[in-house]
Amino acid sequence: MLKRLFIKNFGLIDEAELLFEPGFTVFTGETGAGKSMLIDALSLAIGARGGVGFVKQGAVSAAIEATFNIAVTHPCHSVLADFGLDADDGDVILRRQVKADGKTRCFVNGISITQSQMAFIGDALVDIHGQRDQQVLLRPLYHAKLLDQFSGNEKIAEAVKSSHKIWYGFNNELSQLRARAEQRDKEIDLLNIYVEELSAIDANLGEEQELATERQRLMQSDKVMQTLSEAQSLLENNTPAAHLAKAERLLQNYGESLPEIASLLEELATAAATASDAENTLSSLVGTLEADPQRLEEVDERLHMLRQLARKHHVSCDALPDKLIELQQSLAQLTDLDSNMAELEQKTNTAWDSFASACAKLTAQRQKTAVTLAKKVGEVLVHLKMPDVVFKANLEQLPETQWGQEGAEKVAFYVQTNPGSPLAPLDKAASGGEVSRLMLALKAVFFANMAPQTLIFDEIDTGVGGAVADAVGLCLADLANSHQVFAITHLPQVAARGRAHLKIAKMSGQNMARTKVSPLYADDRRDEIARMLAGANITTAAKEAATSLLTGVTHG
Fold this sequence. Notes:
There is one protein chain. This protein is α/β, with parallel strands linked by helices. It folds into two domains: 1-140 and 450-556, 3-Layer(aba) Sandwich (Rossmann fold); 185-335, no CATH class. It has 19 helices and 15 strands. Strands 2-1-4-5-6-7 form a six-stranded antiparallel sheet, with helices on one face. Strands 8-12-13-3-14-15 form a six-stranded mixed sheet. Strand 1 (2-10) and strand 2 form a beta hairpin. Helix 4 crosses helix 13 and helix 5 packs antiparallel against helix 13 (337-383). The longest helix has 47 residues, at 337-383.
């Protein structure tokens, strides 16, 4: 239930703190006093979209805070859990800040959330019955779900949804296989060519780099041979090893007497040996290295084939072995396509049978529930002084090709507003006060077995009066026995049924206007109901009539 609503700098409201109790609370006031402003404020607190027009003129921002207390079994707990949140000792505090530029911030129990998350949480806490174009009950899109909820056994509807999902998955896969089968022969021929090409080349990991390195060496072999020959010619003409040896022999006689000569002799001997090794190595290289144009051609051809196949299959050369395995697997799948398709057809048929069986159960339940719903709504309509109105939950059987996750039929609510007139869709059959009472009747029935919730009715009593108004008030009071109910009303008969009564008044001054919300008790409440009965001139008779209304009702 909604325990507290705090509003600051919102519209014409400077600041207001409203505390609420369970049961039936009514809001009254002159036209234009700002009653709808409270609905707008609460709507923002439960996730409605904001706007610059909500912020009080001259204020930086507006703030709305709604505090709810929920039982441990309330569905809102699961919604909070989905967002990683929980209720603090059963309290859910929704806070919305709207800045003057239209930007908003949303919080639940002090934690920042998105506007869409706040809307999900708000939907689990509050049901606002607004104007005709906003009423979910009028939309056929929701009628199947409402009927299934009313049955009290939504498991069958869930079974239809889950079995349809399974069948749809198999059927979609089967359709893809069938489409593939039409092109199978061409695809098999093409895959065989690809597999043959890749198998023939037998590419190896790292082969491209090895071939590229070898190719580079082979391309440089002619130039290397020429350079080596030039170097060999120089060494042969100058014979550095022989010259170094001759110098060593010339100085040999002085090595024993002069230490410096002895050291030089060692260096000359080492240099002669090194020069001799270099000459031998060069001769060996000249003898063993030679150009190999045939091998170069083989390497070029291999590299070209590898790179051409890599481009063809949009992979690197190193990925060609994996590509071969992939194509071989695809070829095997196509070869086994018939057996795979037969197996999938069996699974699809079995899934359809399960789906059709679930649909049959749901249809039977809906047919039974539709009768019960029509009876219950009819009983409430009689109490609302609409005994001639006939309500029906119509089930239109659909062809199998149109069966879906909501079952084998289309559910739509129909009404007959006058004897002899045809049944017509709910959203087209009635208007004005009739729609208001029809909606109230449906809500009274649908919410009877639901978890306690906060229900808000914005002028549900439009277009009615007298005994009908009293019936509407009684219906709202009865609904308040299991839910917290708020109603904005212009009817004294409805206002008298409230357990709590708040008056909304606009206070005007020089260059300013403010909206004030005040709880009414005893004489003040009597006077407000008398005003609703008689207008601005409150007579003694109006006060007596108001007293009679207040003492003659049971407050919800």
